[in-house]
Amino acid sequence: MLFNSIDFAIFLPIVFMLYWVINKRGSLTMQNLLIVVASYVFYGWWDYRFLALIVFSTLVDFTVGQQLRKASDSGKRKALLWTSIFVNIGLLGFFKYYNFFVDNFVQAFSFFGSEIQPNTLNIILPVGISFYTFQTLSYTIDVYRKKLDPTNDIVAFAAFVSFFPQLVAGPIERATNLLPQFYKTRKFHYSKAVDGLRQILWGLFKKVVIADNCAQFANMIFDDYSQYSGSTLLLGAIFFAFQIYGDFSGYSDIAIGTSRLFGFDLKQNFAFPYFSRDIAEFWRRWHISLSTWFRDYVYIPLGGSKGSVGNQIRNVFIIFIVSGFWHGANWTFIVWGALNAVYFLPLLLLQRNRKHTNVVAEHTMLPSIKEGIAMLITFLITTLAWIFFRAPSISDAVQYLAGVIDSSLVSIPEIRPSFLFILILLFLVIEWAGRRQKYALEALWLGRPKVVRWLAYYIISMIIFLYGGKAQEFIYFQF
What is the DSSP string of 239-288? Predict the structure, then answer.
């Protein structure tokens, strides 16, 4: 079920009303059970057969948590942890990477002159498996580390694993943050609900107006890149940069806003990453729930930025390559991750990776010239890396890049959608004005008269209806 669909527009109010009616009767377990049922309906709307995977992961990790409570022997505790890791990563690896490894195994043998005919499978990738797998793993890892007490409430745990607003594309919530919220009685707060609706509105604007419109032109250019000038190819990459940001951060905004309607607080997943002044700041602001997951559960256990220079270089490349591979079974994602590691490494080695931890132009209306140039450079190198993320193969990405750096880069682009330029400019102005908040509309216009606020929301709503692009599936559903 898509957030930007009629189905969800009917589903959400029904669940919302049932949820708060149950709340008045004071049954927390029934309220959590409704969330589980609603989440399974939400997920099963796509393909009910894969509900078994969510149920299986839920039961495995709930049982592991129970056994970790009883186990005192370190060897047994490690065995339980690795059971959870093996089951969850095993399922993820099979559904997402089986054919990738088989195909590359065949190519490796072909390189040495041997032909083999292995069996490949027509595997359907379950929507959201990369997200809920990491979410439930956070539970067993934190219970193993004794940072979290194992739960005895199977209903609350099932609700945590399957919570429908963020089930299929995040944010990837930690058990330490989200699970305890299912233990507490939730009360309806009008101001919290209004804030949630405001964030949903902005998320829809990002997705429907920015991402879906940019997708039409990005697809047109990437699908026939050999026919366009360097300037048009660069514009296509820029369109994709705004597409993926509007698409994914828009989903996160809708997910977080929807959660707030039900009394839950999810972590911020994007913090205006295209206003970053270097690549390290970008990665602190982009897909925060995933980058911090890898930081806490992979990078730091490897040694992080401590130890020898060689170890630091190794850890940086591991974390970025693994992050790239998480996105999909294609060498393009691995190269994309490695390229970001190359961008990041000089900052780490020069100890400049924590230079920009504040908000750009925090106390002024406009950035300084130095900040403006730094943001532009960071955006451009990020956009060039996105080419590998978007291209179907490495050879396509290399040829696309070669086309960008052609002499025709200084020509006028063949494709110039004026209306889209205006929409992107409006989007950037609003994002810039709200960059100090958790999302652009959080506090924007709140100090203004009510009529001004409602007029602004009405205008944004009308832009969504009038200028929404052709509906596109959320990009991160494929991950």
Answer: HHHHHHHHHHHHHHHHHHHHHHHTT--PPP----GGG-SSHHHHHHHSSH
